[in-house]
Structures are given as C-alpha cells and as structure tokens.
Amino acid sequence: MSDKKISLLNANTLIRGAYMLLFGLLLVAARLIISIVVVVQFLFVLFTGSDNDNLRNLGQGLGKWVYQTLMFLTFNSEEKPFPFDEWPAVEASDGYSARQVDDVEEGEFVDAEDVVNDDIPSFTAEQPESDEDAGKTTK
User: Fold this and answer.
1) Per the domain annotation, does 85 fall within a domain?
2) Residue 15: DSSP 8-state
3) Whole-model pTM above 0.90?
4) Which of 63, 89, 86, 84 is nearest to 20 (CA)?
5) Residue 126 included in any domain
6) If you write DSSP's letter for every residue of 90-127 in order, what string do you get?
7) Mean pLDDT for the chain overall
8) Does 53 map to a domain?
9) Domain that includes residue 60, residue range
10) Which of 69, 83, 82 is nearest to 24 (CA)?
11) Is 47 within the bounds of a domain?
C-alpha cells in the first residue's frame, strides 16, 4: 500500500473544502456584479464620452479579487482572499475617453474619419506615378 494518507477524514481538508464552497458561491455573485459594472461603465462612456473612475476602480478590484480567489480554489495559493484578507489594492489607471476634450468644442460633432493622428505611422507605400518611375531605383 502507498505511504500517502487518505485525507478524506483530515480536518484541514474538510475546512478547506468549506472555504472553497464559500468562495465558489462568492465567485458567482462577483460575476453578476462585474457584468453590471461592465454594462453601466459602457453606458457612462456612451453618454458622457468617458468612463467613471469609481466604477473603473471597482472593476479593477473585483478583477484582482477574482484572480486571488481562483488561485485559492485551484490550490495555487493558501492565502484566502477578502473577506479573510485585505481587499486588493487598486492601482491608478488612465481610464478611457472617447475623445480629447481640448480638441472638441462644446456641441461639436466629430466624425471618426476626420480625426488624424500624426503619431501613428503610415504603412502605405507611395505609388509610382508612371511605369518608368516604377523601374527606377535610388542609390
């Protein structure tokens, strides 16, 4: 027989199983909350042109919490996530803006085709004007 002990009656395994069940249920709730944050954040961008800082921070915190929870559930970590540990730290991010506020006057409609960004290089090659130019090479 193997030297490994059966952990069916091991108290630590049963306690971890209870935590895993709890965090599995909390993940279901987190999925619903993240879905709501995504929809509301999209509506903010749609109607105001930029995202909401509080919703962005909530989404980032939830994303980190989900990651920590999955690491615990898959036995990659022994650290139990929030509420048994601190809420994950949120790092500052730039957010999203549909347009630059400085570039657009109030009430002005901007067509995406009219926006030119000089920082983006053009990868289109200039076409030769005639067949003779096509055969020339520069040295």
Assistant:
1) yes
2) H
3) no
4) 84
5) no
6) PPP----BSS-GGGS-TT----GGG---TTSPP-PPPP
7) 79
8) yes
9) 33-98
10) 69
11) yes
- Rg, Å, the chain Cα set: 27
The tally of CA atoms less than 13 A away on the side-chain side of residue 86 is: 3
pLDDT at residue number 1: 45
Query: Residue 81's closest CA among 66, 102, 98?
Result: 66
Long-range contacts, 62-70 (Cβ 8 Å, 24+): 62/30, 62/33, 62/34, 62/37, 63/34, 64/88, 64/89, 64/90, 65/30, 66/27, 66/30, 66/34, 69/23, 69/26, 69/27, 69/30, 70/27
pLDDT at 5 over 90: no
Which amino acid, residue 27?
L
- Residue whose pair of structure tokens reads 């949120």 in the numeric block: 90
d(CA 31, CA 38): 11
* Token output for 83: 């509420």
Here the tokens at position 43 are 């509506």
